[in-house]
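Q: My labmate handed me this sequence with no annotations at all. I'd like to see what the chain might look like in three dimensions before we decide whether it's worth expressing. Could you predict it?
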Amino acid sequence: VPTQKELKELTKCHSVFTTNTLGQNGLWFSGSILYAEDVPRVFFPAAGKKWHDDGGKSDRDYALYYWSSRAEEWAFYFYYNSDITYLGHSKWPRAYGMSVRCVQE
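A: Here is what I predict for the chain of 105 residues:
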């Protein structure tokens, strides 16, 4: 799982909110390379999050919430038609069930 710094670098350039060929909403990220369909890129689905109190799902298909490698941090939040917001130490409990994006070293 990438560090918060690595996720910030990866998410510098991105597509508009879109639907991929599998019908999933989300964003394509191309790191420090200006986003275009012919550059190396990775897709992050808009998986939403899980509420910690009742286990219900929230924001599926509309928002991306991704944890970094440190459990007490999460790296970014994106909601449909907004800007990416980077956060430091999370004020949200780990039980919120936000996504992780594994990377190959």
